[in-house]
Design a protein that fits this description.
It is a single chain. The protein has 12 helices and 4 strands, in the order H-E-H-H-E-E-H-H-H-E-H-H-H-H-H-H. The chain has 263 residues and is an alpha/beta fold. The chain has a single domain, classed as 3-Layer(aba) Sandwich (Rossmann fold), CATH 3.40.50.300. The radius of gyration is 18 Å and the shape is globular. About 6% of the residues have low confidence.
């Protein structure tokens, strides 16, 4: 457990840098923000959206410059209007138009665990059960708990807030991506929708990860034994949760699970 505490402290230091950079960011009234708790599918959405905005399939060498992280310096250079950014931020009144992406928190926890291993943010001796305890209580990195993040954003819902479920996008990607493009305020082009969805297919992203792993700065120090693009499926948490772990998760995250109809 000491190693988990040490790893969690490292994550806090590592992730707080981007939070400090946000103070100098210049917001515009028509900016759009793709917001989610980590490991909820934002990279997948960004790959599709970047492809749609550029009119050609993007990859891991360029998607992040088209739909950048709001805290990154490159975000000030984007030429596309409206500007579209990705963020894992807590509720922020400066984010006027928000596309909020949610995923079953149990799948988020599993994905976050493997992400932490991949990025060497936790020691390999840390078990999923140990990690889950920290996840449930909001002690993973600078983030609040998944429950608090979801509930906090849902409380800010208004006519400029658009909710999307990861599972719905899996079920009908073209329909949901069309809805997302309309929510952003862009013209819907069916042919471009089809191309963008194809660009975001998991088989393609897995292949691109293998081919471009060493070209994406964010992955330079990652442990390749743990892929970034894993299964892209819903419900895989059942392979990792015991009954007692599921009870504890539901107890800690009951409000968000009920609001999102995951229970």
């Amino acid at each position: 457990m000491n190693r988990l505490r040490q790893s969690t402290a490292w994550i806090k230091r590592h992730l707080s840098k981007s939070n400090r950079r946000s103070t100098s960011f210049e917001f515009r009234s028509d900016d759009v923000f793709i917001v989610s708790y980590p490991k909820s599918g934002s990279t997948w959405i960004r790959m599709m959206l970047a492809s749609y905005l550029t009119g050609k399939p993007c990859d891991f060498t360029n998607f992040h410059s088209v739909v950048p992280e709001v805290h990154e310096r490159c975000s000030n250079a984007t030429k596309i209007q409206p500007r579209v950014f990705k963020s894992h931020s807590e509720p922020d009144r400066r984010f006027r138009r928000v596309v909020y992406l949610v995923r079953d928190g149990r799948d988020v926890a599993v994905s976050f665990y493997y992400h932490a291993l991949r990025q060497k943010l936790i020691d390999e001796s840390v078990t999923f059960e140990q990690f889950l305890t920290s996840f449930n209580t909001g002690h993973v990195g600078r983030f609040s708990s998944w429950n608090d993040h979801v509930c906090g954003w849902l409380q800010k819902r208004n006519e400029q807030f658009f909710l999307f479920h990861y599972e719905d996008i899996l079920t009908d990607p073209e329909e949901e991506f069309t809805r997302l493009i309309a929510a952003i305020g862009l013209e819907v082009n069916p042919d471009a929708i089809h191309m963008a969805v194809a660009a975001g297919r998991f088989a393609r992203m897995q292949r691109l990860e293998s081919e471009q792993h060493d070209l994406y700065d964010a992955w330079m120090l990652a442990d390749k034994r743990y892929p970034f693009v894993r299964s892209g499926r819903a419900g895989t948490w059942r392979r990792y949760f015991t009954e007692s772990m599921e009870r504890e998760f539901t107890k800690a995250n009951k409000e968000a699970m009920e609001l999102l109809s995951y229970v």
